[in-house]
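Quick one: C-alpha coordinates for this chain, please?
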Amino acid sequence: MYQPPHFREDDLGVQHALIRAHPLGLLITTGASGLMANSVPFHLDAAASEKGTLRLHLAKANPQWRDLQDGAELLAVFQGADSYVTPSWYETKRETGKVVPTWNYAVVQVRGTARVIDDADWLLAQITALTTQHETPREKPWAVSDAPDAYVKAQMKGIVGVEIEITAIEGKWKVSQNRPIADREGVAAGLGETAGQGEMTDLVRRYGGLLEAGEEAGKEN
Protein backbone atom coordinates (compact mmCIF):
# COMPACT_ATOMS: atom_id res chain seq x y z
CA MET A 1 0.00 0.00 0.00
CA TYR A 2 1.30 3.46 -0.90
CA GLN A 3 2.09 5.09 2.42
CA PRO A 4 3.06 8.79 2.64
CA PRO A 5 4.51 9.18 6.17
CA HIS A 6 1.88 11.68 7.35
CA PHE A 7 -0.94 9.21 6.64
CA ARG A 8 0.58 6.18 8.40
CA GLU A 9 -1.21 4.76 11.42
CA ASP A 10 1.04 2.20 13.13
CA ASP A 11 -0.82 1.86 16.43
CA LEU A 12 -1.93 -1.78 16.57
CA GLY A 13 -4.81 -0.94 18.91
CA VAL A 14 -6.16 1.65 16.48
CA GLN A 15 -5.78 -0.78 13.57
CA HIS A 16 -7.61 -3.50 15.50
CA ALA A 17 -10.38 -1.07 16.44
CA LEU A 18 -11.05 -0.36 12.76
CA ILE A 19 -11.23 -4.09 11.99
CA ARG A 20 -13.76 -4.57 14.79
CA ALA A 21 -15.81 -1.57 13.69
CA HIS A 22 -15.73 -2.60 10.01
CA PRO A 23 -15.40 -6.42 10.09
CA LEU A 24 -16.66 -7.09 6.56
CA GLY A 25 -13.25 -7.34 4.93
CA LEU A 26 -12.15 -8.18 1.41
CA LEU A 27 -10.24 -11.47 1.31
CA ILE A 28 -7.86 -11.45 -1.67
CA THR A 29 -5.87 -14.46 -2.86
CA THR A 30 -4.13 -15.73 -5.94
CA GLY A 31 -3.75 -19.41 -6.72
CA ALA A 32 -5.09 -22.20 -8.89
CA SER A 33 -8.38 -20.32 -9.17
CA GLY A 34 -6.57 -17.18 -10.32
CA LEU A 35 -6.85 -13.80 -8.62
CA MET A 36 -9.90 -13.91 -6.35
CA ALA A 37 -11.58 -11.52 -3.90
CA ASN A 38 -14.54 -12.16 -1.62
CA SER A 39 -16.23 -10.01 0.99
CA VAL A 40 -16.23 -11.93 4.27
CA PRO A 41 -17.12 -11.07 7.90
CA PHE A 42 -14.00 -11.60 10.04
CA HIS A 43 -13.69 -12.09 13.78
CA LEU A 44 -10.51 -10.72 15.39
CA ASP A 45 -8.83 -12.37 18.37
CA ALA A 46 -6.20 -9.83 19.37
CA ALA A 47 -4.66 -12.03 22.06
CA ALA A 48 -4.16 -15.16 19.96
CA SER A 49 -0.86 -14.02 18.39
CA GLU A 50 1.55 -11.08 18.43
CA LYS A 51 -0.36 -9.01 15.85
CA GLY A 52 -3.70 -10.76 16.26
CA THR A 53 -5.49 -13.66 14.59
CA LEU A 54 -8.44 -13.46 12.20
CA ARG A 55 -11.05 -16.18 11.96
CA LEU A 56 -13.70 -16.64 9.27
CA HIS A 57 -15.60 -19.25 7.34
CA LEU A 58 -16.21 -19.78 3.65
CA ALA A 59 -18.77 -21.83 1.75
CA LYS A 60 -17.32 -25.17 0.70
CA ALA A 61 -18.61 -24.38 -2.78
CA ASN A 62 -16.29 -21.33 -2.84
CA PRO A 63 -12.98 -22.41 -4.45
CA GLN A 64 -11.03 -19.74 -2.59
CA TRP A 65 -10.53 -21.93 0.48
CA ARG A 66 -8.73 -24.50 -1.66
CA ASP A 67 -6.26 -21.82 -2.74
CA LEU A 68 -5.68 -21.03 0.93
CA GLN A 69 -5.18 -24.72 1.63
CA ASP A 70 -2.51 -24.77 -1.08
CA GLY A 71 -0.60 -21.90 0.54
CA ALA A 72 -1.82 -18.99 -1.59
CA GLU A 73 -0.62 -15.49 -0.73
CA LEU A 74 -3.27 -13.72 1.30
CA LEU A 75 -4.32 -10.08 1.70
CA ALA A 76 -7.30 -8.85 3.72
CA VAL A 77 -8.52 -5.27 3.37
CA PHE A 78 -10.76 -3.52 5.90
CA GLN A 79 -12.32 -0.27 4.70
CA GLY A 80 -13.23 2.24 7.39
CA ALA A 81 -14.93 5.62 7.07
CA ASP A 82 -14.52 7.46 3.77
CA SER A 83 -15.77 10.67 2.21
CA TYR A 84 -15.43 12.94 -0.80
CA VAL A 85 -13.77 16.26 0.06
CA THR A 86 -14.81 19.27 -2.01
CA PRO A 87 -12.31 22.12 -2.52
CA SER A 88 -15.14 24.45 -1.52
CA TRP A 89 -14.42 23.60 2.12
CA TYR A 90 -10.82 24.86 1.92
CA GLU A 91 -9.79 28.33 3.03
CA THR A 92 -7.03 27.97 0.42
CA LYS A 93 -9.71 28.07 -2.30
CA ARG A 94 -10.62 31.60 -1.24
CA GLU A 95 -6.98 32.63 -0.87
CA THR A 96 -5.39 31.28 -4.06
CA GLY A 97 -7.86 29.02 -5.84
CA LYS A 98 -5.07 26.41 -6.11
CA VAL A 99 -7.02 23.41 -4.84
CA VAL A 100 -8.44 20.15 -6.17
CA PRO A 101 -10.95 17.60 -4.83
CA THR A 102 -9.76 14.57 -2.90
CA TRP A 103 -11.07 11.59 -0.97
CA ASN A 104 -10.56 10.95 2.72
CA TYR A 105 -10.49 7.40 4.07
CA ALA A 106 -9.20 5.07 6.76
CA VAL A 107 -8.11 1.57 5.78
CA VAL A 108 -6.25 -1.40 7.22
CA GLN A 109 -4.47 -4.04 5.16
CA VAL A 110 -3.47 -7.38 6.63
CA ARG A 111 -1.16 -10.11 5.37
CA GLY A 112 -0.83 -13.48 7.01
CA THR A 113 -0.63 -17.24 6.83
CA ALA A 114 -3.85 -19.20 6.64
CA ARG A 115 -4.88 -22.50 8.15
CA VAL A 116 -7.96 -24.20 6.71
CA ILE A 117 -10.04 -25.97 9.36
CA ASP A 118 -12.82 -28.49 8.71
CA ASP A 119 -13.83 -29.23 12.30
CA ALA A 120 -17.35 -28.94 13.68
CA ASP A 121 -16.31 -27.76 17.15
CA TRP A 122 -14.03 -25.05 15.73
CA LEU A 123 -16.72 -23.88 13.31
CA LEU A 124 -19.34 -23.70 16.05
CA ALA A 125 -16.98 -21.63 18.20
CA GLN A 126 -16.22 -19.32 15.27
CA ILE A 127 -19.81 -18.64 14.26
CA THR A 128 -20.79 -18.24 17.91
CA ALA A 129 -18.03 -15.67 18.54
CA LEU A 130 -18.89 -13.78 15.35
CA THR A 131 -22.61 -13.78 16.12
CA THR A 132 -22.12 -12.77 19.75
CA GLN A 133 -19.93 -9.82 18.70
CA HIS A 134 -22.70 -8.34 16.58
CA GLU A 135 -25.76 -9.43 18.57
CA THR A 136 -24.60 -8.29 22.02
CA PRO A 137 -25.48 -4.58 21.48
CA ARG A 138 -29.06 -5.52 20.57
CA GLU A 139 -31.80 -5.27 23.19
CA LYS A 140 -32.79 -8.90 22.58
CA PRO A 141 -29.69 -10.64 21.16
CA TRP A 142 -30.13 -13.68 18.96
CA ALA A 143 -27.86 -16.64 19.76
CA VAL A 144 -26.75 -19.54 17.60
CA SER A 145 -28.33 -21.84 20.20
CA ASP A 146 -31.72 -20.26 19.39
CA ALA A 147 -31.77 -22.25 16.14
CA PRO A 148 -32.50 -26.01 16.20
CA ASP A 149 -29.33 -28.00 16.84
CA ALA A 150 -29.88 -30.26 13.82
CA TYR A 151 -30.36 -27.22 11.59
CA VAL A 152 -27.12 -25.60 12.80
CA LYS A 153 -25.18 -28.83 12.24
CA ALA A 154 -26.60 -29.15 8.73
CA GLN A 155 -25.62 -25.56 7.91
CA MET A 156 -22.08 -26.10 9.20
CA LYS A 157 -21.61 -29.02 6.80
CA GLY A 158 -21.61 -26.47 3.99
CA ILE A 159 -18.79 -24.28 5.32
CA VAL A 160 -15.09 -24.53 6.09
CA GLY A 161 -13.12 -22.50 8.63
CA VAL A 162 -10.07 -20.33 8.03
CA GLU A 163 -7.69 -18.99 10.66
CA ILE A 164 -5.16 -16.31 9.74
CA GLU A 165 -2.26 -15.39 11.98
CA ILE A 166 -1.46 -11.78 11.08
CA THR A 167 2.17 -11.44 10.03
CA ALA A 168 1.98 -7.86 8.70
CA ILE A 169 -0.56 -5.09 9.22
CA GLU A 170 -0.67 -1.54 7.84
CA GLY A 171 -3.00 1.33 8.60
CA LYS A 172 -3.56 4.40 6.46
CA TRP A 173 -5.63 7.32 7.78
CA LYS A 174 -5.88 9.92 4.99
CA VAL A 175 -8.02 12.47 6.81
CA SER A 176 -6.87 15.92 5.67
CA GLN A 177 -3.95 16.11 8.14
CA ASN A 178 -1.67 17.24 5.29
CA ARG A 179 -3.71 20.43 4.73
CA PRO A 180 -3.16 23.82 6.44
CA ILE A 181 -5.12 24.10 9.68
CA ALA A 182 -7.67 26.51 8.19
CA ASP A 183 -8.42 23.92 5.50
CA ARG A 184 -8.73 21.17 8.12
CA GLU A 185 -11.20 23.30 10.04
CA GLY A 186 -13.19 23.88 6.86
CA VAL A 187 -13.27 20.15 6.06
CA ALA A 188 -14.40 19.27 9.59
CA ALA A 189 -17.14 21.90 9.43
CA GLY A 190 -18.28 20.77 5.98
CA LEU A 191 -18.35 17.10 6.92
CA GLY A 192 -20.17 17.98 10.13
CA GLU A 193 -23.02 19.35 8.02
CA THR A 194 -23.05 16.28 5.72
CA ALA A 195 -25.40 13.43 6.57
CA GLY A 196 -23.71 10.18 7.52
CA GLN A 197 -20.22 11.65 7.94
CA GLY A 198 -19.99 11.76 11.73
CA GLU A 199 -17.19 9.19 11.88
CA MET A 200 -15.07 10.99 9.29
CA THR A 201 -15.74 14.33 10.97
CA ASP A 202 -14.33 12.91 14.21
CA LEU A 203 -11.26 11.54 12.41
CA VAL A 204 -10.50 14.87 10.73
CA ARG A 205 -10.81 16.66 14.05
CA ARG A 206 -8.67 14.14 15.92
CA TYR A 207 -5.87 13.71 13.37
CA GLY A 208 -6.01 17.35 12.38
CA GLY A 209 -5.32 18.56 15.93
CA LEU A 210 -8.73 20.23 16.21
CA LEU A 211 -9.91 18.65 19.45
CA GLU A 212 -10.14 20.77 22.57
CA ALA A 213 -8.10 19.66 25.58
CA GLY A 214 -11.12 18.18 27.33
CA GLU A 215 -12.23 16.33 24.21
CA GLU A 216 -8.76 14.85 23.70
CA ALA A 217 -8.69 13.55 27.25
CA GLY A 218 -12.09 12.03 26.76
CA LYS A 219 -10.97 10.28 23.57
CA GLU A 220 -7.95 8.78 25.35
CA ASN A 221 -10.08 7.48 28.20
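The first helix runs from residue 12 to 21.
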